[in-house]
Fold:
Amino acid sequence: MKVLNFIVLGLIAGYFIACTSSKDRIAPANTQQLALRVVQAKTYSEDKETLFRVALATLQDLGFSIESTNKQVGMITANNGGLRFSVVVQTRQNGLSGVRVNARYGQTGISDASVYQNFFSAFDKSLHLDREGL
Amino acid sequence: MKLFQILILTFLISAFSACANKQEEEIQKQRLALNLSTPSSEERAMTSKFYETNNFDEIYQASIAVLQDLGFNLETADKELGVITAGKQEDAAEVGNTLAWGLFSMVAMIAGQNTSQAEMIRREMTQKEQMIKVAIITTPKQGRTYVRLNIQRYVINLNDRPMYAETIKEQEIYATIYDKLSKAVFLEANDL
Structure:
């Protein structure tokens, strides 16, 4: 009988919280736009085309398979065992260019700074090799 | 005792019929969608926004950046047409939905019903994941830049089967994204 009482209470509680929406996860209002960009983006003095080529090489170095590219937009999407990267290379002011990358693994957006540090570390090595003409 | 169990089952069904009806409504909406009804002017206003700038590039780049801010994977981009599409997979579990069908399964077990059948129903009716798809179209219009945003989601159940698909029509979700886009325009303009 006690079990049934618990069920009734659970049902009443459930009734009041029923239909709370998973749509809140579409665009969470509390996303820290600027804080995210600090770890996901880096500025370089090279031109957009060079950085685009280096980004492709870096993703290949890291074992990603390239899914789509758009040179005009500067966009590359790539996948490595369910880890998906979106890289965007843009022309910035004063002759600079920016690289922005965001990563996702299944249902989880990656906010761990070390993931982005590893990417940019590989990117910088790849850029160095490109400068050396290798 | 049996009467009490029947009463509980009746309560269970009635208490959660709101959610069940909601799913039925979604199915009805999908059927109606085949009629290709045009959106109301309110819906169009909710999903679009004019920016008082003729700098198309700025708005287009900011749109890409805001999708990255929100954790979307970029899928396609066509600058000539101003199109960007992106998607992300998110958890779709809702406390009410999970609890309701979990309790349904428990009550069925206590009432001596076929437990495997109850478990099958629970898995069919419990939301697991959602695939969210976004399309942004940016167009220069009479010295201004027009942005149109559409969001759809596909929800799957614990058996990894599709439950329903819907176009998002919540004003606050579009307002949040446009608010972030306005901030992104500022951040992009300042190379942040």
About this structure: Chain A has a mean pLDDT of 86. The helical segments of chain A are 2-17, 33-40, 48-61, 113-131. The first strand of chain A starts at residue 41 and ends at 44. The radius of gyration of chain A is 22 Å.
